[in-house]
Structure formats: structure tokens, C-alpha cells
Fold this sequence. Notes:
- This protein is mainly α and 190 residues long.
- Helix content is 56%, strand content 0%.
- It has helices at 8-17, 29-33, 44-52, 56-61, 64-67, 73-77, 84-97, 106-122, 127-142, 145-148, 155-160, 175-185.
- The chain is globular, with a radius of gyration of 19 Å.
Amino acid sequence: MSHTTQNPEIVKIEQTAHTHVCDCYQCGKCSAGCPMADKMEVLPSTLIRLVQCGEILEAAKSLSVWQCVSCLTCSARCPKSVNIAGVIDTLKEISIEKKCVHPKAARILAFQRAFLNTIYRNGRTNELELVAEYKIRGFLNDFNPLLAMKDASLGLPMFLLGKLHLKIGAPVRDKALVKRIFKKCNKPTQ
């Protein structure tokens, strides 16, 4: 897919994200529109520049890739149609593959894994199962009992307002379909 680069790592990112990072001319519109930019140490435009320069591991190690909320504002604002959000998602995958996830992103990753596991098992989310798995994964990452119990006081008010359902819902009827979707998504890109 790449039309100018010979760096195999950049080519892989471009193929996975279905974009050409070399098209970015650093106008900064992605960073200016990002709702998380004020929280990021490395702005989206800088992440793209790091990739352009072949500094992929440095970009993947950044906490900023995990602070991205996947709202796609960056990609929508790009005048050259660079799929910035796709590049950031690919950097997340690389940080997991290379085992260089930023330490402060451990709980974000724990939540994402718990969420996907509940979908895989049930075909839909199950709030209690999701929260339990997330809290256990988070605790096993940092052994911080205060963070493990941090949201406990919200449980009763949420339940009384009808925002927390204690009933475990029935899984979807065609769980095999959900498993096929996961299998297809987990196939390596060619």
C-alpha cells in the first residue's frame, strides 16, 4: 500500500491502518481537534511524525496512544485523509506485541481485555462480569486495593437509579457467530 517508503515497519502500519503516513504534511489539524490533546504528552501529529521517521517503538511506548478515545476526529479533520486513528490503533497493537505498553496504561488495557472477554463469552456485555474481571485484572497489575475498591460506593446509587443491572442476561443465541467474528478479527493481516 505504501507508495514512497521502503521501511517494512512503516509499510506494515500503512497496510494495517489502510493509509499513507507519508501524506501527512504536519498541518496539526488532528492535534487541534483532538478532545484528549490536553492530556497527551505526544500529540497525534507528533505520533504520525515519529512513524514517518521510523521511530515506531518510541511512538508505541507513548501513553498517548492509550489516551486516544477513538473518536476519529483526527482522521476526519485531516486534509490529506490520513487515517490517524487507524495508525494510533496499530501503535497500540505494536505496543502489546512488543510488550512495551506504557505502565500507566495497564488499567486501560485491563478494561479493554475484560470488555472483549465478556463479549467473547456472552456475545454482549455483562456489567457485573465486566466490572469483576476488570477489577481483578487491575488489582493483579498494580496490587493497589484502593483502586480496586475505588468505584464501590457508586454501586448502590447506580442500582437505585436503574443504571446497574444485577441480573445476568442470557448470552446471544448464536455464540458461534461471535466466536467466528473474533477468529476473523484475530487473523494476522496479510
